[in-house]
């Protein structure tokens, strides 16, 4: 049988147990009762995940209700705050007030494509003015992609996921050509502490790229924004042709034809002094640059010595945006004509036209002469084989009233196997002067007709030249008086009053002006005679 003290102790223990049970029950009913640890502020929720919808940039938060606590009331709702950085401090602005039964929320006003989005949450309690403490922040991954075209690289840099106590197992790069992010395959798996990556991009491709972060020991996955990258076009070889070079004393005019499959960034007109290094020291000069693929004419204009001193080789070079050559036309060269004079003959020689394998060159030589009716141009020879020269015999023009100034132009054609002309190069005109033979009569008979057939055969005193010559003539009598002055005009024997000059000796002075050869002066005397009746 138990004694009184023992029974008294058992009763005390029962009363203490009942008191503790009643206190906990009262606390669970929303009141602190006598619990000195009780607070009317609920516990905060537990954010489990913040992720971005890659295409739209919208963010979604998921969380769990706070654990039951004897010291705090149950949550009666949740408040979501979006962060805004002001003066290097995060300011939290409420953006959603949600019921206690909701544990996921999508922020339609957020855009994770323009930067990382940051949130905290709080639980609402019975006292609407006393929400819970704020949770630790969660921030989305923001991916930034840089395309380096000249190295064919794609570089990724991203802000790390904030949350999970930085307990990230790895980052997964998803990259492919699908526009639907759910279909983009895994491309690379990276350590959780790595925040940048690069890989070869290739050319002529379209990439869609986003990141995933995975939490250690869970199935939680958060995603970044999506990037679209279009790599530079691969240049497809085209047809670039310098189809003609027309030379003038101070410039070479070039025409071109281009049939492009891909537009390069720009073009260069390059001039070289030799065809290749085998012919001598190669000097290459950029004459000009242009970007318009519809350009059809270019001018190389510098001093005559640089242009016409020797033949030049030209190429059109296509360049990409990385300043790398992607295409080049065949070299085309200018033609320089050269003339040497021997007596009444001119020998014309010229440069070789560089042609493609399988083509042939044909050279046509044109002569230009000045007549009283204007300039006459005539093709005088066609040459298809070396030696590249021809001789022009001009004796037939002696005394025909043409000037003794003869010019020549050489046109070189590249002709393909089907007899079509591929390219043309035309030299600048080169001129030479034939020495005029001058004959001066010793006597004239002014009253005789030119058609009488007298021995002199002349009734006008004038110089006889094999080619037209410019001259000024002065006639003096025996007293030294000037009785006639004429420019390119003979003296018919009449004095200023219209009467015939007396028979006898007269003195002449003739100043000849020969183009490109300076002037000549002839002086002497002649007789004026009249036939005996």
Question: Any overview of this molecule?
Answer:
There is one protein chain. With 533 residues, the chain is mainly beta. It has helices at 4-28, 304-308; strands at 46-52, 59-64, 77-86, 89-98, 104-107, 118-124, 138-139, 142-148, 153-159, 168-176, 186-191, 196-200, 206-215, 221-223, 227-230, 239-248, 251-259, 266-272, 284-290, 297-300, 313-319, 325-328, 332-333, 337-342, 345-350, 360-371, 374-383, 389-393, 405-415, 421-426, 430-433, 438-439, 443-444, 464-465, 470-476, 482-487, 504-514, 518-528. The strands form nine sheets. Strands 16, 17, 20, 26, 27, 29, 30 and 31 form an eight-stranded mixed beta sheet that branches. Strand 1 and strand 2 (59-64) form a beta hairpin. The radius of gyration is 52 Å and the shape is rod-shaped. Residues 1-30 and 452-456 have low confidence and may be disordered.
């Amino acid at each position: 049988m138990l004694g009184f003290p023992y029974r008294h102790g058992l009763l005390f223990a029962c009363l203490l147990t009942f008191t503790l049970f009643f206190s906990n029950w009262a606390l669970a009913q929303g009141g602190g009762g006598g619990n000195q640890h009780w607070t009317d502020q609920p516990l905060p929720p537990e954010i489990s995940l913040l992720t971005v919808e890659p295409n739209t940039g919208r963010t979604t938060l998921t969380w769990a209700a706070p654990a039951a606590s004897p010291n705090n009331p149950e949550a009666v709702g949740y408040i979501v705050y979006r962060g805004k950085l002001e003066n290097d401090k995060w300011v939290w602005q409420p953006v959603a007030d949600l019921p206690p039964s909701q544990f996921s929320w999508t922020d339609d006003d957020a855009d994770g494509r323009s930067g990382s989005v940051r949130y905290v949450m709080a639980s609402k309690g019975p006292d609407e003015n006393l929400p819970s403490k704020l949770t630790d922040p969660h921030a989305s991954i923001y991916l930034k992609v840089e395309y380096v075209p000249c190295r064919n690289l794609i570089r990724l840099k991203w802000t790390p996921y904030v949350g999970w106590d930085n307990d990230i197992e790895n980052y997964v790069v998803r990259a492919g050509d699908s526009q639907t992010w759910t279909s983009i395959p895994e491309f690379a798996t990276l350590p959780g502490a790595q925040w940048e990556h690069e890989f070869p991009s290739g050319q002529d491709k379209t990439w869609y790229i986003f990141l995933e972060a995975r939490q250690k020991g869970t199935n939680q996955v958060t995603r970044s924004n999506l990037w679209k990258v279009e790599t530079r076009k691969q240049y497809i070889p085209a047809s670039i042709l310098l189809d003609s070079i027309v030379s003038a004393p101070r410039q070479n005019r070039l025409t071109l034809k281009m049939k492009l499959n891909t537009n390069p960034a720009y073009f260069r007109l390059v001039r070289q002094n030799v065809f290749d290094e085998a012919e001598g020291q190669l000097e290459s000069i950029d004459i000009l640059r242009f970007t318009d693929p519809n350009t059809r004419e270019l001018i190389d204009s510098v001093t005559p010595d640089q242009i016409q001193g020797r033949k030049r080789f030209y190429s059109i070079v296509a360049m990409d945006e990385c300043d790398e050559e992607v295409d080049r036309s065949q070299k085309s060269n200018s033609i320089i004509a050269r003339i040497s004079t021997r007596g009444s003959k001119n020998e014309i020689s010229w440069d070789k036209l560089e042609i493609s394998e399988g083509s042939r060159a044909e050279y046509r030589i044109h002569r230009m002469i000045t007549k009283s009716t204007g300039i006459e141009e005539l093709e005088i020879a066609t040459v298809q084989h070396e030696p590249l020269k021809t001789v022009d015999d001009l004796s037939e023009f002696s005394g025909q009233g043409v000037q003794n100034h003869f010019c020549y132009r050489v046109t070189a054609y590249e002709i393909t196997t089907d007899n079509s002309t591929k390219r043309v190069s035309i030299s600048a005109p080169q001129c030479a002067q034939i020495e005029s033979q001058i004959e001066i009569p010793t006597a004239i008979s002014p009253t005789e007709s030119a058609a009488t057939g007298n021995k002199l055969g002349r009734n006008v005193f004038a110089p006889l030249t094999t080619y037209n010559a410019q001259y000024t003539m002065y006639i003096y009598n025996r007293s030294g008086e000037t009785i006639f002055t004429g420019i390119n005009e003979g003296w018919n024997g009449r004095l200023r009053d219209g009467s015939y000059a007396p028979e006898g000796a007269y003195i002449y002075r003739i100043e000849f002006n020969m183009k490109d050869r300076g002037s000549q002066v002839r002086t002497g005397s002649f007789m004026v005679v009249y036939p005996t009746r």
